[in-house]
Sequence to fold (271 residues):
Amino acid sequence: MAAMAAEEEEYEAVLCVKPAVHVYRVPPRASNRGYRAAEWQLDQPAWSGRLRITAKGKIAFIKLEDKTSGELFAQAPVEQFPGIAVESVTDSSRYFVIRIEDGNGRRAFIGVGFVDRGDAFDFNVALQDHFKWVRQQSELAKQAQNPDQGPKLDLGFKEGQTIKLNIANMKKKEGATGNTRPRPAGPGGLSLLPPPPGGKSSAPVCPPGERPSSLSAPAQLPGTPITDSLLSWPQPAAAPSAATTDVWGDFAKASGSASNQTQANAGWVQF
Fold:
């Protein structure tokens, strides 16, 4: 039942239609050298009409029909091409020998000729394309039944095979890390952004070797808790060392010994 249902679901497709063909009686072939169209009495065709190639499943049918009424004159089922059902003649590309059947088991070979050489070419290509499709469908069905037997895609590296990667901007320029400058630290250890070009820094600049005696506390916004990170407490002034004493002496004193004055004036250029 399943096979009958599958046959009923198959539809008949039209592959090629040629409006003008001639049918000839073919004499028995005396040897295996092939058929020759010159032996067919080409000026006296036995029948003229329309040729239509249809396909139902894997089988193609060559149908010879009347031009006006479409009545079937003869039909040739083709199960393989090239094969015994359709043969080309040896002396022309416009003539073929086909094997027709009447459905009762009787078969006969007749000659078919096309008026135009292009029609003969289309007839040949239509049969070739159909049976090419049949072979592809058979291969796909076999692969579906045995998927492990198909060719496997191997993406692994073969022995001795290497690969080279060239990625731009991966090398670090020499000295790139030495060009970075640390941000200046502001009051309370907070880092300050550098001033814009042409601007002035808001942080006070102290002379070298000296520290500010007192720093003003930053303004507190209403509702903001007081934390040590937001306050900068004043640092005690460092005691002056011997290295930072005035090397020129105390010039505010009017009295002093002559030696001290001479020693003090030794560093000045006398004009």
Notes: Helices lie at 2-9, 117-145, 258-265. DSSP finds three helices and seven strands in the chain. The radius of gyration is 55 Å. The mean pLDDT is 74.
